[in-house]
Specification:
The complex is a heterodimer. Chain A has one domain. Chain A starts with a helix and ends in a 7-residue tail after the last helix. In chain A, strands 1-2-3 form a three-stranded antiparallel beta sheet, covered by helices on one side. Helix content of chain A is 69%, strand content 3%. By secondary structure, chain A is mainly alpha-helical. By secondary structure, chain B is α+β, with helices and mostly antiparallel strands. Chain B folds into three domains: 150 residues, Alpha-Beta Complex (Penicillin-binding protein 2a (Domain 2)), CATH 3.90.1310; 310 residues, Beta-lactamase (3-Layer(aba) Sandwich), CATH 3.40.710; 77 residues. Helices cover 41% and strands 17% of the residues of chain B. Chain B contains 21 helices and 21 strands. In chain B, strand 2 and strand 3 form a beta hairpin. The longest helix of chain B is centred in the N-terminal third of the chain and has 37 residues. The chains are: A mainly alpha, B alpha+beta. At the A-B interface, helix 8, helix 11, helix 12, helix 13 and helix 14 of A face helix 1 and helix 2 of B.
Chain lengths: 376, 690
């Protein structure tokens, strides 16, 4: 298809919305990193801009091929996914506990970001024929196995964050595929209950858990930061102070005392929303929430307009991924979610994530562009 | 067909999906609104307290100078190692450096046996109520350690080095007792006037440092500093400069003080050859016309630098607190000594003022007083009058004088001369001493009578109870009678005992008067009292309050307070009496006098009035031939300027111990050349036990 035709048929609203998020993100990142930048000798904003450019190119590249051609490669994609995860397990370099990188020459790259998109494509093809047939717990089992295998590999890294994203994508796509919401909800509630029980058992009876101590600690301080006010609770407390002290109008760009004084840990990735909330106040945070909501909302609209269930499910997969990232990242900053190092899409600093998100967005747009069978 | 059906299902499920997303965003929106609109004030306050630190800036303590401006106490900058408990989190707050680890590293770097992990934890605990203030771990760390800590700052979050002025005493032990020392604030925090003190502050604990604490302290300044999460200062918000404390100009003369201390040490060394227990004592030199203290010392010596906020080593703690004699006490004020013959001027004045003797009346000393219990004189003096009795320190003469004047007159004169009462000098912990005048007797004997009565009543009660039981249990009437007789017999014995004890212990006996007259018995005075009493005789009967701070000046040099001589009492003693007693004291240093050997080489124009004394203390650590040596003096005899009193515990004789100190001081004061050390002077025959 010709580029001009593609451009004509894209959703400008979605594009504008993401552009706004990106621009806002640059400003926040500039503020969040102006101390750290000196420390690390890195210009965060410049790099992020560069990656954005790469991302935009990737976005348009994704648009050139009709997504529906991917359907027949779904199994290959799934196997590629597994191979990548195995590679990480055996060849990956561990930094900061879990975030696994693979180096091809001097180029570092985080498979975790890509595998999410790969899972979505495979899963969409896997679920498409099952739409409307997911009414019993038994019918869930193949889906669980399908997701369970890569999930297991991820948990072996261990990368709790990406694992949770997998689960979120699975639940989101199953919901869209017509799985009984009641069943999903009870499974979800049951899962949370099990986690709580497991943690309780861990601390009371020394039950073994496939989690490292710091991961557990993050889960617990979320409930009561004062368990460890100068350790893990510190992050929870300081982030809420940053958000709360921002007030209605914020302290002004580059004027945040919490971010300026380095009270916020990892403020250019994990706690970037706190910086935004501190400096731009409620107005800023509400605006950001609105932009994100619009992104998701437009996505769902595109899902309804897709020419086939495969397309709809791809979009819902991406939207579920975004939604979980947003809920988890912002939720952590405002104290309603436990701490896991999950970046905020299009805002947090990080090349791999930005690129992966742009590709994922490209997929959504692709479904929109090729929505009409007749057109082509 | 299949696709169409799927599409219908999708349409339905995506609606549910949309509502899930809406719900998630609503929760986030409400939470953000709650934090940023409802709770914003709370978090603003927290954000501000996060970054604002008030750093106290210790005001340099005022200096203490001698009368000529010589520095006795000043400040020098030192580095104190502090622990900011609130700042004990690491680089970015994520991977914690455990505060225990920090403490362990501190201990390891300091490598000081006095500072252990437990000790630091205790310091933190004992300051738990005020942890926002830095905990001072060690004061005055050497510059090499400062460098080490600066280099390893990243792994020691919360550890800081604060440069502070620290008290320093350039002359070490010189005047140590009277200067006093500063130490960590403790119980003072509860007292009024200490409201603005912090846990890390030092306060004067003894001496001038204590009495003039509020003048010396100054006002701490503050720097309000904005800091990062690591407590690194970003910028100074505002500064309130510290106001240095006020300086004190003392009445002390550094040179005289130095001579007093040096001669004291020499005397101790000399006396110790025969009397090894001689290790303690005190001396005071007063300006007789004003009451100014020119020099004052106490032995064993005290070095204020040993305290200074640091914990004492075990050895130092023993030296100051538990060894015998403990060095902490300023014996010039806190000690109460039996005056011995140095009291005889009081007896003389009492006798002259009562008109019971004239200076020229001669009595005969046969070596023993003629009244019971025939208290011995230390020699057979033959015919003595007032002058020769003072000169030779005749005990017979003064026992007779005491007998003639009576204890009432002696008590009255002693009181007028300031004995048995605090002089009111501006130094702490002054002892009041004991003058056995009539009021004292009444109180003391009353208390003793109560004690004796109570004791005997209890005894009798016990016996009665015992017998009562037996009487009740008695088999027959005759047995009962026998027991009752026995009981009344025993009670009778105890009633007799009561009579004997009351008679002996609660009455003033004639021999008490004789003993008092020669400075023994109940008499006990501090050295400053003795000095002031001699000073009062020397200046013609005017009693001043001794004082040690001449003026207080601000750090800018402005005189804030000038202390003037304070008249306590213009005594009723007649000028004639004073003159006779002065003459008698002068005879002490003239040929035949007990202190002639000391001043025989003094030039004609510097005549000295003096009195030697040897006291039997009756204290537990004194054996049969152990005496305190006392010496009082004033000079020049014809126009007195200075008065001296000194005591050397276990000094044996007054002239042979404290007398040398008086001599050395007068040589310095009047510029009489004397190069010889006391140790080189030979005198054996002068060990007079008077």
């Amino acid at each position: 298809m010709r580029i001009s035709k593609v451009l004509k048929s894209i959703d400008p609203l979605l594009l504008l919305d993401v552009a706004l998020i990106l621009v806002m993100g640059f400003f926040v990142l500039a503020s969040a990193s102006h101390n750290a930048g000196e420390r690390f000798g890195v210009d965060f904003v410049q790099r992020q801009l560069l990656w954005t450019a790469v991302g935009v190119v990737a976005f348009f590249l994704v648009l050139t091929v009709d997504y529906s051609k991917l359907a027949k490669y779904a199994t290959h994609i799934y196997i590629l996914n597994l191979l990548l995860l195995l590679a990480v397990l055996f060849l990956g370099t561990e930094t900061k506990g879990a975030q696994a990188w693979i180096y091809i020459g001097p180029l570092g790259f985080q498979p975790a970001e890509v595998v999410k998109t790969l899972l979505i494509i495979g899963m969409a093809q896997f679920l498409a024929p099952r739409i409307g047939k997911l009414n019993t717990l038994k019918s869930f089992i193949p889906v669980f196995i399908y997701v369970g295998i890569p999930l297991l590999l991820i948990m072996m890294q261990p990368d709790l964050g990406t694992g949770l994203v997998y689960v979120a994508i699975m639940f989101g796509m199953m919901l869209a595929a017509g799985a009984s919401p009641l069943l999903l909800t009870s499974l979800f509630a049951g899962g949370i209950g099990l986690v709580v029980l497991a943690i309780y058992a861990h601390y009371t009876w020394d039950l073994w858990l496939p989690l490292k101590e710091y991961q557990l600690m993050r889960l617990i301080v979320f409930v009561d930061p004062m368990i460890d006010p100068r350790g893990w609770g510190w992050n929870v407390i300081q982030s809420q102070i940053a958000v709360g002290s921002g007030g209605l109008l914020g302290k002004g760009w580059m004027m945040g005392s919490q971010s300026g004084g380095n009270f916020l840990p990892e403020q250019w990735t994990d706690f970037i929303f706190s910086v935004l909330a501190e400096e731009f106040g409620f107005i800023g945070s509400a605006l950001m929430l609105l932009f994100f909501f619009l992104l998701l909302y437009r996505g769902i609209k595109i899902a309804t307009k897709a020419k086939d269930p495969f397309g709809s499910l791809i979009v819902i997969g991406v939207i579920s991924m975004f939604a979980f990232h947003i809920l988890q990242n912002i939720g952590m900053a405002i104290g309603i979610m436990p701490i896991t190092g999950i970046p905020l899409p299009f805002v947090s600093y990080g090349g791999s994530a930005l690129l992966a998100n742009m590709i994922a967005l490209g997929l959504v747009m692709n479904v929109y562009v090729y929505r009409d069978r007749i057109l082509f | 067909m299949e696709v169409r059906k799927s599409k219908l299902i999708l349409e339905k499920t995506l609606k549910i999906y949309t509502w899930v997303i809406v719900a998630i965003f609503l929760v986030m929106f409400v939470r953000v609104a709650w934090l940023q609109i409802i709770k914003t004030e709370l978090y603003r306050t927290k954000a501000v307290s996060n970054i604002m630190r008030w750093l106290p800036e210790t005001a340099p303590r005022g200096e203490i100078l001698d009368r000529n401006g010589q520095v006795l106490a000043t400040n020098r900058p030192v580095f104190n190692l502090c622990l900011d408990y609130m700042g004990m989190s690491d680089e970015d707050g994520t991977s914690q450096i455990n505060s225990d680890e920090v403490v362990n590293r501190l201990v390891e770097i300091l490598d000081d046996p006095e500072i252990t992990y437990e000790q630091i934890q205790n310091m933190i605990k004992s300051q738990s109520g005020r942890l926002y203030e830095p905990v001072i771990i060690k004061r005055d760390i050497p510059i090499e350690l400062v460098t080490v800590f600066e280099e390893r700052r990243r792994e020691l979050p919360g550890v800081s080095i604060i440069a502070q002025p620290q008290r320093s005493y350039p002359h070490e032990t010189l005047a140590g007792h009277l200067l006093g020392y500063v130490h960590s604030i403790k119980e003072e925090l509860e007292e009024p006037g200490f409201e603005d003190y912090g846990m890390a502050d030092l306060v004067g604990k003894t001496g001038i440092e204590k009495v003039y604490e509020h003048d010396l302290r100054g006002e701490n300044g503050y720097r309000q500093v904005e800091v990062t999460a690591l407590n690194r200062p970003v910028r100074e918000v505002q500064t309130i400069p510290a106001i240095p404390g006020n300086d004190l100009i003392l009445t002390i003369d550094l040179e005289l003080q130095r001579v007093m201390e040096k001669s004291f040490d020499e005397v101790l060394e000399k006396v110790q050859k025969d009397h090894p227990k001689a290790q303690a004592g005190a001396a005071v030199l007063l300006d007789v016309k004003t009451g100014k203290v020119l020099a004052m010392t106490s032995r064993p010596e005290l070095d204020p630098t040993d305290f200074n906020g640091n914990s004492l080593s075990q050895e130092q703690a023993d030296y100051y607190f538990s060894n015998e004699p403990p060095a902490l006490r300023n014996r010039a004020l806190q000690g109460a000594y039996v005056p011995g013959s140095t009291f005889k001027m009081v007896t003389a004045i009492a006798a002259l003022e009562s008109g019971v003797v004239s200076p020229d009346e001669y009595l005969t000393c046969t070596g023993r007083y003629w009244e019971s219990p025939y208290i011995k004189c230390w020699d057979v003096h033959g015919s003595v009058n007032l002058y020769s009795a003072l000169a030779k320190s005749c005990n017979v003469y003064f026992q007779e004088m005491a007998a003639r004047s009576g204890i009432e007159a002696i008590g009255r004169i002693g009181t007028e001369l300031g004995l048995g009462q605090r002089t009111g000098i501006d130094l702490p912990y002054e002892s009041s001493g004991l003058l056995p005048h009539l009021e004292w007797q009444e109180k003391e004997f009353g208390a003793r009578a109560d004690r004796i009565n109570k004791q005997i009543d209890e005894r009798i009660k016990g016996i009665e109870d015992e017998y009562q039981k037996n009487i009740e249990a008695a088999a027959d009437e005759s047995e009962k009678k026998r027991l009752e007789r026995e009981l009344s017999g025993k009670i009778n014995v105890w009633e007799q005992e009561r009579k004997i004890q009351l008679n002996h212990y609660t009455r003033w006996h004639t021999w008490d008067t004789y003993n008092t007259g020669i400075g023994q018995g109940y008499n006990q005075y501090s050295v400053i009292q003795l000095a002031n009493y001699v000073s009062t005789i020397a200046n013609g009967g005017t009693r001043y309050k001794p004082y040690i701070v001449d003026r207080i000046i601000s750090y800018e040099g402005e005189v804030l307070k000038q202390y003037e001589p304070e008249l306590v009492l213009e005594t009723s003693i007649s000028a004639d009496t004073i003159r006779e007693v002065q003459r008698g004291m002068q005879a002490v240093t003239e040929p035949g006098g007990t202190a002639y050997f000391l001043f025989s080489d003094f030039p004609e124009e510097i005549k000295v009035g003096a009195k030697t004394g040897t006291a039997q203390t009756g204290r537990a650590d004194y054996e049969k031939d152990d005496y305190d040596g006392l010496f009082v003096a004033f000079a020049p005899a014809d126009n007195p300027q200075i008065a001296f009193a000194g005591v050397v515990e276990h000094g044996y004789s007054g002239g042979g111990s404290a007398g040398y100190i008086a001599k050395a001081l007068m040589e310095e004061y009047f510029g009489i050349g004397q190069e010889k050390s006391i140790l080189e002077l030979s005198e054996v025959e002068h060990e007079i036990v008077d």
